[in-house]
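Many introductory courses stop at the sequence. We go one step further.
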Amino acid sequence: MRINGRRLAVILVITCTITPVFNVLTSEMSARSALQGLVDGLIIPPLVAGFWTDLSLSSAIVLVLFLLGRGLGQVVTRQDPRRLVASLGDAHLAYALPFFVVLAVTIQVALKMNRMIGVNVLRYYATGIYHQPRAEERVFLFLDLEGSTQLAERLGSATYFDLLRRCVDDLTEPLLATDGEIYQYAGDEVVVTWTMAVGVRDANCVRCFFAIQTAIERDAHRDTRDFGIVPRFRGGLHGGTVTAGELGDLRQQIVFVGDILNIASRLESYAKAEALGLACGDLALKGKVAPVKAYSLSVSHAPVPPSIKLGARNCSR
């Protein structure tokens, strides 16, 4: 609901900005025309919001709702209920209908792109932040589903995918609450990232992991009923300087590279085999010549279940 509310708010800002200008340019240059565009921009989007992402299957419904919203807008501005029907014969409809179709398709494409690559990533591409490689201070949290190989074998690929999708859906609220963004999916592994300032603020990067576990445990009965297990994640957390930039030609992607990601991944792998002690210690991680000083993290008000393992380095910063 929070995501949909934000999307609708953005759409309202766009329509309330564009539609008055469109009305003035295509109808008459008057304050009344601009006001009509503003009212239309406020009424029509909420009516058709449920169908923005499925216009190909619901175009007739969207068209009816558009005409209804446009008529209601004229009733509001002119205080004349007869305009609800009379608006269907407006000559200006010849301009308004194509405008609405173009705007609706544009919003649909933008929403799809937003969901596929992420709102922040879409903003990065639009602003060209990563056209040239740049150094950044970031935090990365590598999450891996425990026992994924055995689960896939026992459940079968289709049911296992349903489990994985549900687990990923459970990440939504914790990520929103801690301002995290998903960097990538890699099979049953999810990589979450924050800028350093956002990640350490209120311990967002740490709280995110335990919030995810809490969200999954809250619906444990549902997962037990559907899959016969309660899924668990283990994680590796690390932060520092990485290099970020756009990579690829046929398929472009914004990529972060650096030893920070390698260590976070190795810590997550280490948690697969070892329950880290509560004290910090030097770990011999695969691919690292020198030992890495690592810390285990746990919630302070209760013991950590054996299945909740999180390796972290330099979290004191």
